[in-house]
Design a protein that fits this description.
GO terms for molecular function: fucose:proton symporter activity. InterPro entries: Lfuc_symporter_FucP, MFS, MFS_dom, MFS_trans_sf, MFS_TsgA-like. Keywords: Cell membrane, Membrane, Transmembrane, Transmembrane helix. This is L-fucose:H+ symporter permease. The protein has a single domain, classed as Growth Hormone, Chain: A (Up-down Bundle), CATH 1.20.1250.20. It has a two-stranded antiparallel sheet with strand order 1-2. It is mostly helical. It starts with 12 loop residues before the first helix and ends with a helix. The longest helix is centred in the N-terminal third of the chain and has 42 residues. β1 and β2 form a beta hairpin.
Length: 410
């Protein structure tokens, strides 16, 4: 009889709790970027397609930093990798002060790029870090659990932006002082967390991906000498992650615009609904973590991708609250996609696991290209722009539906 694998071990509890906090921290930064997108349209008087360059700055950093972060992690370990990520995160936040003083969109994009280099480093490190804190058979559950707290951060981000930025804007203080003050405060908090993490002792870890049982209860050991890119499930995971984050970046970038233009909500109220949609994403991750005990992760991923194709069609029709409800529900079904694609891509990569994590994180660069593209359509009709993410969810569906076959052809 096979015993049920544990979620994690007692010795990893403290480290897992702290690394899970990292997921929350970059969730705050990601969704704050979407609030800034709308704020810059109003204050710096730029178009929707130009404001999409905010996402280009954020997600573009992943394409630049993915491999260097992975090499740094491989050379210096998980702990040093986390410290580097927090350092870059804090530096980027502090750069908002001179950018606000100069009232320059270009300087803000530079600050966001540096900050996002920190986020890319944290993501590159944190995902394999969490995966290594226990049995590979429960790595999907651990990653979805940790990503649920990324959802908590995602809720905090737009709420902070609504209260400190968009609310101030509604009071006719259309300047960048509130942006500067908020990000300097964030930089201070991140710096303190970095100091505290340096005091935590990380146990000696053995990578569970070297030789173990796969997610379908079939004994499988990586073939000796197999090259990283000979693993078809890994290559397709990079592609799926690219389109996954492309859909996320575009959907989030124009959420507030959709609420304002289709339902005539204030920007602050639309941001509050955005926070609620991220709350549903958090619920979706907890739900997904539970369902994966009974449904294979790849199968559940395919179901959720199909649901989001339907949601995008409804959103594009601009049917008032019905379409806005579908827009909110996109985040519920989006919930499990990032961590599940990540975990499925890392299965049985053996000694290539850390390097593989770097490439999958680089797939996040997809979020850099879709928002400006959606913005070109959103300049004329924000509802119709939501037809574009259907392509992304179709790619994810194909990856998930064919995952078992891809695994057998490594």
């Amino acid at each position: 009889m096979h015993s049920q694998p544990k979620f994690t071990e007692l010795q990893y509890y403290i480290v897992l709790a702290f690394v899970t906090l990292l997921f929350l921290l970059w969730g705050v930064a990601m969704t704050m970027g979407d609030v800034l997108n709308k704020h810059f349209q109003n204050v710096l008087h730029i178009s929707k397609s130009s404001s999409g360059l905010v996402q280009l700055s954020i997600f573009g950093a992943y394409g630049v930093m993915g491999i260097p972060a992975g090499l740094f992690m491989k050379r210096f370990g998980y702990k040093r990798g986390v410290q580097l990520g927090l350092l870059l995160y804090a530096c980027g936040a502090f750069l908002f002060a001179p950018a606000a003083n100069a009232q320059s969109f270009g300087y803000f994009r530079l600050a966001l790029f540096v900050l996002a280099c920190g986020l890319a480093t944290l993501e590159t490190v944190a995902h394999p870090f969490v995966a290594s804190l226990g049995d590979q058979r429960t790595s999907d559950q651990r990653l979805n659990f940790a990503q649920a707290f990324n959802g908590v951060g995602g809720i905090i981000g737009p709420l902070l932006g609504s209260f400190f930025i968009l609310r101030a804007e509604a009071g006719h203080t259309n300047d960048l002082v509130s942006v500067k003050q908020l990000y300097v405060a964030i930089g201070i908090v991140i710096s303190i967390i970095g100091v505290l993490f340096s005091l935590i002792k990380v146990p000696q870890l053995t990578d569970p991906h070297v030789s173990t049982v796969d997610g379908y209860s079939t004994a499988e050991v990586p073939k000796a000498g197999t090259k990283l890119f000979h693993n078809r499930h890994f290559v397709f995971a990079i592609v799926a992650q690219f389109f996954n984050v492309a859909a996320q970046g575009g959907t989030w970038a124009y959420f507030i615009n959709y609420g304002h233009e289709v339902l005539h909500l204030s920007d602050a109220m639309a941001a509050n609904y955005f926070a609620f949609s991220i709350f549903l994403m958090m619920i979706g991750r907890f739900t997904g973590t539970f369902l994966m005990r009974y449904i294979a992760p790849a199968r559940l991923l395919a179901i959720f991708a199909a649901c989001n194709i339907i949601m995008c069609v409804v959103v594009s029709q601009a049917l008032g609250w019905v379409s806005f409800g579908a827009l909110i529900m996109i985040n519920f079904f989006f919930s499990i996609m990032f961590p599940t694609i990540f975990s499925l891509g890392l299965k049985n990569l053996g000694q290539h696991t850390q390097q593989g994590a770097s490439f999958i994180v680089m797939g996040v660069v997809g979020g850099a290209f879709f928002p400006p593209l959606m913005g070109l359509i959103a300049n004329k009709n924000v509802a119709l722009s939501y037809l574009l993410p259907i392509v992304c969810y179709a790619v994810i569906f194909v990856f998930a539906y064919n995952y078992k076959r891809l695994r057998s052809k490594a």
